[in-house]
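Standup notes
- DV: blocked on the single-chain target, sequence here:
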Amino acid sequence: MSPGLSQLLIAAIVWMAMHLVVSGTQLRALIVRAIGEGAFRAAFSLASAAILAWLIWSYGAAGPLQSLWVTPRWVIVLCMLLMLLALILFVGSVTTPNPTMVAGQRALKAENPARGILRVTRHPMLWSFAIWAGVHLVMLGTLGATVFFGTFLFVALAGMPSLDAKISGRGYIGWADYAQATSIVPFAAIVQGRNRFHIAEIGAWRIVIALVAWFALIAGHQWLFHIPMWSFL
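- DV (later): unblocked, structure below
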């Protein structure tokens, strides 16, 4: 195993441990009892930023490592379109009060907290990260990208049930009803008749913001990474 791959794997394991063990188990409660909620959030944010910088640096230093597959052009186009969906989910997640986010208990006090993008999934931000990671893993097809983006994909997918369990354990009033009216898997609650899809609640302005960001990111890949994404369309 090359030194570059070893360091990338170590950084990836630390990132996963930070989010799935430190934050996603009873270890979090133990630390909070020792230092307080505010101090934990501050320390966790600083540690996450440092580990993220290490992970990004390790990925760049390791390089592609090895080509695992060549992605067909039509798959790349499909991945680019999926990134638009990821951006819609992300914009919706940061502009809609969500009981799964920090201080989300207040969102449960709304008359109907399961609105807008939350009718689609109660974890729109994590799904946006999962789609982003998945499409880049598929498009690049290298060992380095598989480790790097696979790390984010795994943490995002594993984080959804972990986050649900953590919030459920806190006994928030209204959480059980909210969980019943929403789903982890996109559109599952709608298909099962536990909710209804209202495109108007998502809002045209959110879709416009996502479209603008999508075009900007496609154009930005040429400048940042020397990858002419427009050439695939």
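- Follow-up: The two ends are 37 Å apart (CA to CA).
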